[in-house]
C-alpha cells in the first residue's frame, strides 16, 4: 500500500514538474523586444510616452519586452549588446542621439531587427520611425490665435533644432491664419527637461504680455506657472489637462503604440525581417492616429473654451468664413485622410525675413520638414541658426 | 512698464529661485564651516523634494511636507557624516555618491507620483523667503557672536586645537552636516510644494550644484549668502528675460564663473576672513597632522 502511494506521489510530482515547464517553454518562444530610453521612464514626457506604449504592446501582442532607461546618448552600444545577450530579437532605440550607435550595432548583429526613432539612417535590418506633431501644433495655433487678447502668444522651446523649429513654425502659421496681428514670442531653454528653466522662461514671457502658452519641455511647468495668472496654455506630449483644468485649452498627445504594434505585427507575420528594412520609414501623423489633438485622451478641446472658439470667426481661402471651432474640426478631418487634403506647410509661405520658403502650390517633403531652420513670419525672439 | 517696475519684477523672480538657493547654501555653509564639504546637496534636495511632495499630497499639509523633507535631508546627510567623519573617507567622493544615490532613490520611489499636481500647494512667496532671511541673520549671529559659533569655526579651522580644548570634533561635525542636510531637504521641499507644486524625477535640475557654488561665493558667510542667492536667482531669471538680446548660456554660467573669480581673488589678495576654513575637506584623526 505504502509503495503504491509513493509511486502515485512520484508520478504526480513528475506531472506537476512537467506542467510547470510548459508555460516556461512557451515563454521562451515569445519574441523578445528591447527598448532603449534616453530618459527615466518617470519623466512624464518623451520616455514616459514610449514606456506607456511598450506596456500596451506587451498586453496586446504575444511578445516579451525588456527595457533600459536613462541611457546616455553616444553610449548606446553596450546597452544594445546587453539586450542582444538577453535574447532580444527586435530593438527599438528611442532617441535621435542613438543613431550612429544603432547603425554600428545593426552591422554587428545582422540577424537582429533594429528600429530607430527620429533618425534618418537606415539599413537592411534597421528601420526608422517618428510620430510627428506639426499638424497638431498648427491646430493648437488656430485656437491660440483666436483666444489671445493681448495678440501675443508664447512658445517655450527646448532646443533650437529642426524638430522644434518645425513645430514652432506650424504653431505660428496656425496662429497667423486666424489672427494676422498676433506675434509668437519665443524663449529657448537649451534643455529637454528643466522645470526651473521652464518656469523662469514662462515668467519672462508673462512679463512681456503673453497670454497664451505652448511649449516643448518634458514637464507641466509652463502650464502650472501660467495658470497661476489665469493664462491659457496647450499641453505637450503627456495628458496634462489635470494640472490646470480651467486654463488648458488643448494640446498634443502621442500614441507610439500605433507604430510599435504595426511594426511588431509585421515582424510576427514575417513581413519584416532583418533583410528588408532598408526603405521602412514610419512618418506617422494624425491620419495614422499616431498623434492626437488634446490635453487628455478623448478630449480634443476643453469644453470651457468651445463657446469662445465658436464665437470667433475667420476667413479662409478654401472654406470661406466660418468659426474657429469649425475650422479646427474641418482641418482635422482634412488631415485625417490619407493622403491628406490639407497641409499646414502648403505654399506660398514666406519666412520672417521675407524669403519665399514654400512656393505656391507646393508642400514640403519629409526631408525638408526634418531639416527646417527658417522662422515663420510673426515669430519674435532669438532664433539660433536662422538662415 | 516703468524701469522701477521692471527691476522690481526681476528681483521678485530672483527671490523666488533665490529662496531654495539660500536655504541650501546656509546648510552647506554650516557643514563646511565645521570642515566637511558635502557635494550631496543635489541628492539631499531631490529626496527632500520627493518626500515633501508625497507627505503634502497624502496629508494635505504642505508645511508638514517641509518638515518631513527636513528629516529626510538630515537622514541623508547623516550617511555622509558617517562615511566622511567616522570612516574618514574622501568627503568629495562620498558627497558625489550621495548626490547620485539621492537622484536614483528619489526617482525610484517617485514612480507613480509623477503626473499629478499638488492638491494644496504653498504660495511661492509666502513664508519661506522671509524665514530664510531671518535664518541667515540668526545663523550669522550664532557663527560670529556666540561660543557655539567659535566652537564650530574652530573645528573647521583647526580640529586639533578644538580637540585639545576638549571639544568633541566628530560630534560637532555630525551636528553641522546633519543640520546642513535638513536645510537642503527644506530647500528641495520648497521646489515641490511651492516653486513648482508637483513631482517629476530629476526636478531639482542642478540647483544643488549652484548651492555648492553659492556657499563658496558667499565666502562661507550666512549674511553674504542672502545677497548671493538673490544675485544668482536674478541672473537665472535674466537669462530668459534678456534672451532677445543676450544668449542664455553666458548668464546661466555666471554663478559658476563668479565663484571661480571669487576663489581666485580670495586666494590671491583676500583677507583671511574670505578664505575657506583651513581644515575644509580634511578628515580628522587625533595625533595625525
UniProtKB/TrEMBL annotation, chain A:
Q: Which InterPro entries does the protein's record reference?
A: ABC-Purine-Binding (IPR052910), Peripla_BP_I (IPR028082), PnrA-like (IPR003760)
Identify the domain of life: Bacteria
List GO terms (cellular component aspect): plasma membrane
| Stretches assigned to the ABC transporter substrate-binding protein PnrA-like domain | 31-298
Protein keywords: Signal
PANTHER family, sorted? ABC TRANSPORTER SUBSTRATE-BINDING PROTEIN
Protein's name in the database: BMP family ABC transporter substrate-binding protein
UniProtKB/TrEMBL annotation, chain B:
Record keyword Transmembrane present:
yes
Q: Which UniProt keywords apply?
A: Cell membrane, Membrane, Transmembrane, Transmembrane helix
What is its membrane topology?
A: Multi-pass membrane protein
Tell me where in or outside the cell this protein is found.
Cell membrane
Q: Which GO terms describe its molecular function?
A: transmembrane transporter activity
A single Gene Ontology CC annotation of this entry is: plasma membrane
Membrane-spanning residues:
6-24, 36-58, 64-85, 92-113, 125-144, 174-196, 202-220, 227-246, 252-271
**Entry protein name:** ABC transporter permease
